[in-house]
Amino acid sequence: MLVSELMSPHVVSIQQDELASSAARLLARHNIGALPVCAGDGRLRGIVTDRDIVLRCVAAESDPEQTRVREIMSRGVVGVAPGEDAREATRLMAERQVRRLPVVEDGRVVGMLSLGDLARHHRFDMEASRALSEISANLRAR
C-alpha cells in the first residue's frame, strides 16, 4: 500500500515568520499535534509540534507572542513521497523517532502521514504499534 492511500491530504501549515502563539492556536483549532513549516511557495522548511512550543518556548520562558516559529521549529525534517511504500514510512518513523511525516512531492508538502493513519488501516496496525513502542521506549530512556 502506498503512502498516498493512507495520508491525510488536508494539510494545515504555518510559515516560519509566524508567532508560536499562532502555531498553538492552529494546533488547538484543528486538533493536531504538528504543523509543517513551509515557505510561501509550499516548500518544507521544518516542523513545529505542540511539544516544541511547550519545551522550546514556554518552558524556556520565552513569550509565545514574541517568539517566531523559526526559533522553535525542528529543522532537517525527513519527509516521505506519496508513492513510497507505507511499510517503509513506518520504518522511517521508528528510525527517526517521529510520529508524523510530511508527505512531500517536488519539495512541496502535499499531505501528512501519522502513526494513527497507519494504525487505522488493519494491514499496518502491527507496524504502527511496533514503531510507537520503539519511539516511546527511546523517549523514556532520554
Approximate helicity band: 40-55%
The CATH architecture category equals Roll
Structural class: alpha+beta
Q: What count of domains describes the coordinates?
A: 1
Determine the N-to-C terminus distance.
Answer: 33 Å
CATH superfamily: CBS-domain
CATH topology: CBS-domain
Order of helices and strands: HHEEHHHEEHH
* Gross morphology: globular
Tell me about the largest β-sheet. Answer: 2 strands, antiparallel
Low-confidence stretches: none
Computed Rg = 15 Å
Major sheet strand order: 1-2
Task: Report the sheet-strand fraction.
Answer: 15-25%
Mean pLDDT: 87
The gist of it:
The protein has helices spanning 3-6, 20-30, 50-58, 69-72, 86-96, 115-120, 125-141, and strands spanning 34-38, 44-49, 100-105, 108-114. The protein is an alpha+beta fold and 142 residues long. The model has no long low-confidence stretch (mean pLDDT 87).
Task: Please describe the topology of this protein.
Blueprint: H1 3-6, H2 20-30, E1 34-38, E2 44-49, H3 50-58, H4 69-72, H5 86-96, E3 100-105, E4 108-114, H6 115-120, H7 125-141
Helix pairs in contact: 5-7
